[in-house]
Amino acid sequence: MINISNLDFAYKKTKLFTNLSLELKAGNIYGLLGKNGAGKTSLLKIISGLLFPDNGIVNVNNFIPQYRDPDFLQDIFFLPEEYYLPGLNAEKFQKTFAPFYSAFDEKKFMELLNEFKLPMDQKLNSFSYGQKKKFLISFGIACNSRIFLLDEPTNGLDIPSKTQFRRIIASAGTENRLIIISTHQVRDMENLIDPIIIIDEGKVIFNESIEKVTDKLTIKKVTDKPATATVLYSEKEIDGYKVVMTNKDQGQTEIELETLFNTVVTNPEGIKSVFNGGSINENK
Fold first, then answer.
1. How far is the CA of 270 from the CAs of 31, 55, 206, 232, 280, in angstroms?
2. Three-class secondary structure of residue 29 per DSSP
3. Residues 166-205 pLDDT 10s
4. What is the Cα–Cα distance from 239 to 92, expressed in whole angstroms?
5. I need a labelling partner for 259 at 20 to 30 A (CA). Which of 100, 105, 161, 245 fits?
6. Cα separation of 256 and 79, whole Å?
7. Beta strands in the chain (DSSP E)
8. CATH 3.40.50.300: which residues of the chain?
């Protein structure tokens, strides 16, 4: 569904992506992770046609995003971190914007608004930040676009709403839909995003399924900091150390997303050798 090849992109003289390549397929809820300024939001904007590449090829559903073809736009929904909602209620917003999406499901939209307990008659610009986020998540899912991009979707949501979000997004994932969630709140995304993509210094440095992660890596608690070469990452805790190591006995242990991210960005070469024999796997 999404093929990016040798992408270069810069803001004026600040280089962001250099020769970035990525292939993403339907039926997955991808997690897009990276440090501040790594380019997560910019990559989503390039995919949706809001930013244009300097070099390289970006193909989304056989469209070139920057041309903003109507058939392309009706099949992609991008929920940014920052957004504006007009002084309309939910019904008027739907009547105004739903026609742009040929597969819009009004029944599903109403169901989600009711689940989030959003007022139907109140003007959207008077909603709280969290209410606005829940409204746009509901509208985005109801659009039934094959590509759904979310940038920091759990910002502004309280704990019960985050639980609702995970359940709703999991149910929205189908074999024909591709969802990308860019987030810093990795703990909010445990057991939801898979595969995991990590970008750093303008490149994709990690793109693997959770299944492969648990096959290749194991996490342990130890009292003293180990000096063994098999340790990929260690983190001091109150009662000792949390260490990530290569999985030698093939027994699977759960790897927290935050720990996985820290391991990849602090020891990319070690991760490369474990997963790919010294080469970065940028394509799935």
1. 21, 30, 12, 6, 11
2. strand
3. 999 999 988 899 999 999 888 889 889 999 999 998 899 9
4. 56
5. 161
6. 26
7. 2-11, 14-24, 29-33, 55-60, 76-79, 147-151, 178-182, 196-200, 203-208, 217-222, 231-237, 240-246
8. 2-206
The Cα–Cα gap between 153 and 136 comes to: 10
State how beta strands 55-60 and 2-11 pair: antiparallel
Architecture of the domain spanning 2-206: 3-Layer(aba) Sandwich (3.40)
How far apart are the C-alpha atoms of 273 and 284, rounded to whole Å? 18
**Mind listing the pLDDT tens digit for each residue in 14-42?**
899 999 999 999 999 999 999 988 999 99
Across the beta sheet with 240-246, what order do the strands follow? Answer: 217-222, 240-246, 231-237
Distance CA(150)–CA(154), nearest Å, equals 9
Q: Kindly state the average pLDDT of the residues 132-158.
A: 94
Identify the pLDDT of residue 43: 97
Token output for 135: 């409204």
CB atoms within 10 A of CB 221: 10
